[in-house]
Write a structure and sequence with these properties.
The chain starts with a helix and ends with a helix. It is 56% helix and 9% strand. The protein has 13 helices and six strands. Strands 1-2 form a two-stranded antiparallel sheet. Strands 3-4 form a two-stranded antiparallel sheet. Helix 8 runs antiparallel to helix 9.
């Protein structure tokens, strides 16, 4: 609050911010007092954090360091590991003594640039790409949205998938790592075919849909009566011939590749 007061002279606004910080947080339907820090996720928290950490920015600039900071995520770029260890020790001391902020040692490290992650990104062989953790989270969410036991219409499923894919690629689409994109698209289509196969349920319904999609009668029947798993049959000749890439797109499925290409100015 002392640092906020450097920029704000209105006592009513300062009092309002103080009340906000002391308002407490909701934990398991019960309001708990907040005696330290700012409420996580609150709209005021990032602003107060930036006001507090502005002193850190000035300190780093004064020392001539090249750095990037977003909220409390910070990366300082130096030329050697020895310099990195020295800077880390100095900053830990500065944050603790001057700003009363403890450094999370588990999340802090001195490492080469291709071993670092920042806001979900990393550098590999000189190219920007999403981190392994961000990619794992992405695939996990896709599995949830294409879970065959999720009892929603395909229209609703495509809406939610489209929202998530556009949002994710809107952020991570600047990654220069193209290699997994076609495989991701193929994997996504297979999972959607699996959802359709589960939704059609009855053998007669499955065969009828396959025939309507142009699959040969013998192939449609053999696939429709098969007792193999949904996942196995989602890659069968019948489901791929019937539920083509263009057909799935017409139903509303968004292409990951198209979104990546658009993000890089190819579409």
């Amino acid at each position: 609050m002392a640092r906020v007061a450097r920029r704000i002279s209105d006592k009513r606004l300062l009092a309002l911010i103080g009340r906000y910080l002391r308002a407490g947080v909701l934990i398991h339907d019960e309001i708990q007092p907040s005696e330290l820090g700012t409420p996580q996720g609150g709209p005021l928290s990032p602003l107060l954090a930036n006001i507090l950490l502005d002193d850190l920015d000035r300190e780093l600039e004064g020392r001539g360091h090249r750095f990037v900071r977003y909220a409390d995520d910070l990366m300082v770029l130096v030329k050697s590991e020895r310099a990195g260890q020295r800077v880390k020790a100095n900053l830990t001391t500065y944050l603790g003594r001057q700003l009363k902020l403890p450094v999370n040692e588990k999340k802090s490290q001195v490492a080469k640039i291709d071993q670092c992650e920042f806001l979900g990104f990393t550098f590999r062989r000189g190219k920007l790409r999403w981190s392994d953790a961000a990619f794992a989270d992405f695939k996990h969410r896709i599995r949830e949205l294409t879970g065959r036991s999720w009892g929603v219409s395909m229209h609703h499923r495509f809406d939610k998938l489209g929202q998530y894919l556009r949002g994710w690629m809107g952020y991570f689409g600047i990654s220069e790592y193209y290699r997994p994109i076609p495989e991701l698209d193929e994997w996504l289509r297979r999972r959607v075919r699996m959802c359709y196969w589960k939704q059609w349920r009855l053998t007669r319904t499955k065969i009828g849909h396959l025939l309507a999609l142009g699959v040969g009668k013998r192939t449609a029947i053999l696939t429709g009566v098969s007792s193999k798993s949904y996942w196995h049959l989602s890659r069968s000749k019948a489901t791929q011939v019937g539920m083509t890439k263009d057909w799935l797109k017409a139903q509303g499925l968004v292409s990951i590749r198209d979104l990546w290409m658009k993000a890089h100015g190819y579409a």
